[in-house]
Design brief:
Length: about 190
């Protein structure tokens, strides 16, 4: 029993059949593995080795100028989270007062030193000191946020946007000298929209 008919006649090859048939091979020899890997090799960190010392010094000075401008608070050099008059107002609110969060890190170092002493009074002092500082810092930041929100509403006519509370509190927990951008107001200066 035969399911297909075997043709004894050869298929006719016409120009249309030749044009429709796929080309044979890829038209070039396969490259050796080492040649293919060498073609794909790239440096991991850019072409820093090709820079001249003058170009490196120029790039370094440009980066330091940008950093200084960011520390001064120039708007176009600030990261997105710090841009705008609303964020500047919140920064000024934090910088214009003393915050318990500022002294938390140095005070915790003293508490840590007390905890090393193997006396009962030192252990009790470190325990009470650590938890009371944390409690005072939380209360202080809650009061700071209430004051900042009220002043913000008065200055801008609407409540601060999403993420403003964490922005304000995190800045208050940083030591004054390590804040970026640097404080524009001294402690006790009045806060106003600028």
């Amino acid at each position: 029993m035969q399911f297909w008919k075997k043709s004894s006649e050869p298929a006719e090859l016409s120009e249309a059949n030749i044009a429709a048939s796929p080309p044979l091979g890829k038209g070039r020899p396969t490259p050796k593995r080492r040649d293919a890997e060498a073609a794909n090799r790239r440096p991991l960190v850019g072409a820093a080795q090709n820079k001249t010392p003058e170009a490196k010094a120029k790039a370094r000075s440009a980066r330091s100028e940008i950093r200084e401008a960011m520390l001064r608070g120039e708007e176009r050099y600030l990261p997105e989270r710090d841009k705008g008059p609303e964020r500047r107002f919140l920064r000024d609110t934090v910088d214009s007062r003393r915050n318990v969060g500022e002294i938390l890190l140095p005070a915790m170092l003293i508490v840590l030193a007390l905890s090393v002493i193997q006396q009962d009074w030192a252990k009790m002092a470190s325990f009470v000191g650590a938890y009371s500082l944390i409690l005072f810092a939380i209360i202080d930041n809650w009061l700071l946020w209430r004051r900042a929100k009220a002043n913000f509403l008065e200055a801008f006519g609407h409540l601060p946007g999403k993420g403003s509370a964490s922005y304000t509190v995190l800045r208050a927990f940083q030591m004054r000298g390590s804040r970026i951008p640097r404080p524009a107001l001294k402690r006790g200066d009045p806060v106003h929209r600028r």
